Amino acid sequence: VVPAAKVIKRNATTGKLNFNEQRELEQLPKKIETLEKKIADKQLTMAEPGFYQQDAEKLANYSQQLINDEKQLAEFYQRWELLEDK
């Protein structure tokens, strides 16, 4: 097993993506699209008039899920940019 740091260094010097990175790069657009739809659906749900009439704990959990999805989306975009720059 090769430590991840060595793999990254070796690939950084060649400027090429390894097989796993190439595969990840190919899958990222679909993951981003799916997550963007999920976020949009949550935002639409939260925009409904009766949404905020729910239990406070349920609202907090839903809001936290939205925040987590938005963070993950940002991470996907950062990773995509990193792989594209290689």
Task: Explain what this protein looks like in three dimensions.
With 86 residues, the chain is an all-alpha fold. Helices cover 81% and strands 0% of the residues. It is built from three helices and no strands. It has helices at residues 4-14, 19-47, 56-85. Helix 2 packs antiparallel against helix 3. The radius of gyration is 18 Å and the shape is elongated.
Shape: elongated
What is the strand tally?
A: 0
Report the span from N to C terminus.
23 Å
Strand content: under 5%
Helix/sheet category: mainly alpha
- pLDDT < 50 stretches: 1-10
Kindly provide the radius of gyration, computed on alpha-carbon positions and rounded to a whole number of angstroms: 18 Å
Helix count equals 3
N-to-C SSE string, H for helix and E for strand: HHH
For the residues shown, what is the average pLDDT? 88
What level of helicity do the residues show?
over 70%
User: What composes the largest sheet?
Assistant: none
Please tag this protein with its features:
86 residues; disordered N terminus
Short summary of the structure?
By secondary structure, the chain is mainly alpha-helical. It is built from 3 helices and no strands.
Task: Give me the secondary-structure topology.
Blueprint: H1 4-14, H2 19-47, H3 56-85
Helix pairs in contact: 2-3
